[in-house]
């Protein structure tokens, strides 16, 4: 609904002008940046990185760090994003969170590290919360296995 998306953008701008930025305003701003893009390639990823860095300072969490790592991968390349995700893995964080493994798998795939990507896709599929996500991840697993 483009009307509601536009309304949301106006509300985010108004909230940010109040200069009492908190986690919810930052999350809304990140969503607005994504909404402005027609597709992931058109996303202003440097702006997303900047917003996640601010959010990480205000409300640090492993989920915020994961999302920051993904955004960094779009700006600086998959190796930089993967290094940040692997730091979360090394710290034992988000082990049961399927999106960590899915993001890691995608970055490994983009780096042509197919066997490692397959392992990560398999783990993400095992942890997936619903059948649609599981089917998507299993298809990605088949794709990397075929190319390995």
Explain this structure.
The protein is mainly α and 148 residues long. 78% of the residues lie in helices and 0% in strands. The protein contains 8 helices and no strands. It has helices at 2-17, 23-36, 45-58, 62-76, 78-90, 98-110, 114-127, 131-147. Helix 1 (2-17) crosses helix 2 (23-36), helix 3 packs antiparallel against helix 4 and helix 6 (98-110) runs antiparallel to helix 7 (114-127). The N and C termini lie far apart (41 Å).
Structure in a nutshell:
The chain is mainly alpha-helical.
Beta-strand share of residues: under 5%
Percent helix range: over 70%
Mean pLDDT: 92
- Say how many strands there are: 0
Low-confidence stretches: none
What is the end-to-end distance? 41 Å
State the shape.
globular
The radius of gyration computed from the alpha-carbon positions, rounded to a whole number of angstroms, is: 17 Å
The main β sheet shows up as:
none
User: What is the string of helix and strand elements?
Assistant: HHHHHHHH
Helical region count?
8
Broad structural category: mainly alpha
Identify the notable features of this structure and list them briefly.
148 residues, mainly alpha
List the helices and strands and how they pair.
Blueprint: H1 2-17, H2 23-36, H3 45-58, H4 62-76, H5 78-90, H6 98-110, H7 114-127, H8 131-147
């Amino acid at each position: 609904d483009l009307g509601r998306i536009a309304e949301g953008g106006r509300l985010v701008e108004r909230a940010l002008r109040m200069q009492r930025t908190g986690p919810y305003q930052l999350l809304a701003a990140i969503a607005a940046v994504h909404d402005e893009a027609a597709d992931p390639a058109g996303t202003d990823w440097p702006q997303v990185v900047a917003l996640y860095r601010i959010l990480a300072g205000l409300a640090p969490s492993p989920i915020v760090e994961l999302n920051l790592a993904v955004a960094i991968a779009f700006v600086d390349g998959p190796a930089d994003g993967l290094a940040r995700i692997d730091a979360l893995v090394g710290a034992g964080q988000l082990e049961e969170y399927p999106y960590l493994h899915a993001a890691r798998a995608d970055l490994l795939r983009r780096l042509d590290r197919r066997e490692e990507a397959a392992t990560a896709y398999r783990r993400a599929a095992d942890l997936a919360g619903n059948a649609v996500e599981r089917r998507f991840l299993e298809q990605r697993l088949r794709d990397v296995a075929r190319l390995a």
